[in-house]
Amino acid sequence: MKIPRFLLTAGASGSGKTLVTCGILQAFKNRGLDVVSFKCGPDYIDPMFHAKVIGTKSANLDTFFTNEETTRYLLTENAKDADIAVMEGVMGYYDGVGGITTKASAYDLAKVTDTPAVLLINCKGMSVSILPYVQGFVKYQKDSHIEGVLLNQMSPMLYPRVKKLIEEELHVPVYGYVPRVEECRLESRHLGLVLPDEVVELKEKLNRLAEVLEKTVDLDGLLKLGNSALDLKVQTPDFLKQVEKKRQKKQCVLAWQRTKPSAFYIRTTWNFWKKWVEKSVIFLLFTTHIFRQIWTVFCSVEVILSFLEKSWKKENP
């Protein structure tokens, strides 16, 4: 299946991934493109910026919770009608489970979905030193999937010279730069970004950033890169085939807790169940247990449905 796509990643948290991703999404939307976005991992705040503020469809892709086949299935199911799919990485590109593996990292997602990656570099305080930084990330893995870089907090005066050095010496395409735009900053706190509702005039800020990126980022080049992504061979996961068989025999009831921390649970499980669920019930307890049931015994549909139905009856005798 043809899914135009690219992944925006960085060398570390705090490099500007979310802000730049939102700016690029907004710029694509302003061009009239049908855009879909994905967040690597279970983070529910970043997709809230993608979906609530920009109005794009957004989902999570997490190679820790889903196997390769299921991850590719979720990607194609959510992006099959889009002009371009933009994935936002997590932490540093190669940072995975336990801090000592690449499993469930942005690199792992790029590898599983065969997606070209663009490395966003925080260039504050650097010039020529950017080159060994790029070279290290590109060559750390033979199949790094890094097919370009984007220079963040780069001086407009210095950019042409640094771009020339990178492309001539490393043969890595440079897709533009992001200058320092003070009025477009997104504040953070100890648990990550603040929520979209907490940012004053956020829509205006992102539209302002999109206007800047139209001038400084090669958006056409990014679209071309996305369209160069190889076709994906995708099959419906076996457990979903089992769900379809069960659905034909028994009505499905899906339940969840309606609170902010459960946003990821709802969004992720709904991607699996929306085709087969005929009745949705919201209740205010047992979210953690449901989540564990869904991921530990996913193939046992009867166990999940039985628990949900018993829980509902207990709350509504």
Describe the structure.
With about 325 residues, this protein is an alpha/beta fold. The chain has 12 helices and 11 strands. It has helices spanning about 15-30, 45-55, 70-80, 105-115, 130-140, 160-170, 200-215, 220-225, 240-250, 265-275, 285-295, 300-315, and strands at about 5-10, 35-40, 55-60, 85-90, 115-120, 145-150, 175-180, 190, 190-195, 255, 280. It has a 7-stranded parallel sheet with strand order 3-2-4-1-5-6-7, sandwiched between helices. A two-stranded antiparallel ribbon has the order 8-9. Helix 2 links the parallel strand 2 and strand 3 (about 55-60). Residues about 255-260 and about 280-300 have low confidence and may be disordered.
Notable features of this structure?
44% helix; globular
Question: What's the order of the H and E elements?
Answer: EHEHEHEHEHEHEEEHHHEHEHH
Q: Could you tell me the number of beta strands? A: 11
Distance between the termini: 47 Å
Outline: globular
Query: What is the share of helical residues?
Result: 40-55%
Rounded to the nearest angstrom, the radius of gyration is 21 Å
> Structural class given helices, strands, pairing?
alpha/beta
Q: Average pLDDT value?
A: 80
Write out the strand line-up for the largest beta sheet, numbering strands in chain order.
Answer: 3-2-4-1-5-6-7
Number of helices: 12
Largest sheet, if any? 7 strands, parallel
Uncertain parts: 256-262, 278-301
Strand content: 15-25%
